[in-house]
Description:
heterodimer; A: 73% helix; B: 6-stranded mixed β-sheet; 10 strands; globular; disordered N terminus
Amino acid sequence: xxxxxxxxEGHEAVEAVPKRAMTLGTGTxxxxxxxxxxxxLFAKNFxxxxxxxxxxxxxxxxxxxxxxxxxxxxxxxxxxFYGIGAYVTAVMMEQFNIPYFLCLPVAGVVCFxxxxxxxxxxxxxxxxxxxxxxxxxxxxxxxxxxxxxxEKWTGGVQGLVVTKPDAPFGLPMSQDMWLYYxxxxxxxxxxxxxxxxxxxxxxxxxxxIRDNEIAASAMGVNVALYKTLAFGVSAAITGVAGGLxxxxxxxxxxxxxxxxxxxxxxxxxxxxxxxxxxxxxVGAAFIIFVPNIAEGISKGLSxxxxxxxxxxxxxxxxxxxxxxxxxxQQLAGRLRKN
Amino acid sequence: xxxxxxxxxxxxxxxxxxxxxxxxxIVALNGVSFDMHKGQILGLIGPNGAGKTTLFNCLSRLYxxxxxxxxxxxxxxxxxxxxxxxxxxxxRTFQNVALFPNLSVMDNVRVGTHARTSSDIxxxxxxxxxxxxxxxxxxxxxxxxxxxLDLEDFAHTVVSGLPFGTQKRVELARALAxxxxxxxxxxxxxxxxxxxxxxxxxxxxxxxxxxxxTVLLVEHHMGLVMSIADHVVALNFGKKLAExxxxxxxxxxxxxxxYLGSKDQ
Lengths: 338, 265
């Protein structure tokens, strides 16, 4: 680390993580990718299912990361877009017999529209007020999904059972394993597109708005357009994640998409490191596995134990997994020198 | 003089016509008019609260004048939203530096090219060939500007940790990246020491000469304005006090009164 970078570290505010690198290095990426490909080959079906869950929840956290880490807008309403994506996929698969891989892009497009439209009124709000408006969306969604006139498609309160797809071309693998690899391909593709997006002219416009709206506007950035686009992109990715969850869980019901889910995604983003895309998967791991660990420590007080663990993370590494990664990098650098 | 030179001499690049701005009951600007010609460095001076920054913000469309008009190459800019000012060739810096603090120097300057490039989120996500070409030319231009302003050593440094003087240079680089015809500089000397102010003066002149720009300089630092401006407009209490060459304005009794007060008060 040079002296200049040390100065930078000293100046940063708690919420503002410098966006020097938004991704992992090539070496680390290859190792992570190989692990993601190899692990299911040696795991039981239940573990494979959990890994699939890790991937699609990681995708949903990534979507929030683009919105908050990228464009600086808060959302506690991600569960609504997740729910729309899950329902669009489930209804298309079960009521119209459309293949699952065609349902996901449709879920993405529908959610892009929903996010873009919701972004319009959200333009006038910022900070905590925007968080409240999106909170309202999350609260309304489960009830909207139960509406009577939608019941013949959505199954109302009962929800909808989704058929798990078999591996195609007679591949010798279990349904769970096939679904894992299918999810992995979708998630990797979206991850690469997201990295491209944030590094591009549009991504720079998002981050310019996050840092200083007036200056961004003076540089020719259409602030209203890019803010709503960020909402749309984030909602679209969340929708695809929701669609993947519907296929993996084989069931959608209105009460799976409550504000609790939105808060979990928010938590995942903070634990993974706001604005650091690879952290999304770490954040997802935290929201899936840490509650189980807490339950293992104390059944009666699992909530309290979870709270303590969360508190420790926020206290020790306020920038989340990204901070751990930087520390690790520094340590490795020091070891190499000695 | 040829016909073309005459025409250039008579039609201003930017014309401020009778601009007034009223905030509630306070008249911040009262019927101010002046012209800026191509290649000029125009200094806008006045005591605190004279209306300099208000006028500046009208030019970058942050404020809407209550009456009057501002014409860029003969066309009114008042129908344009703020984000469509950069594309007609008006670039600016801010009084207290308004950079994107979490972005690197390079990315800050890249944002400066936003008005001169185009893209959409799908092509950007897929990094299509035309996006890659456009990014290559953006990077080339950004490197050229960073070298021009001696900022290459900081290209990948996050802006928030840089010294104030360097941040001001980054802001200038960001403004230049949009190829402006007019550069609006809001108190560029603020916060700089004596020596830095002279270096800045030379730099502004160099930019005007080498990059063919017209500069509007809003400044408290009299020494700087008087040494580099071709033309000076003095404001006080929202009205134009005087206009002319630096020497004329400096000798104007109204200007002296505004700055120093007068005996018979």
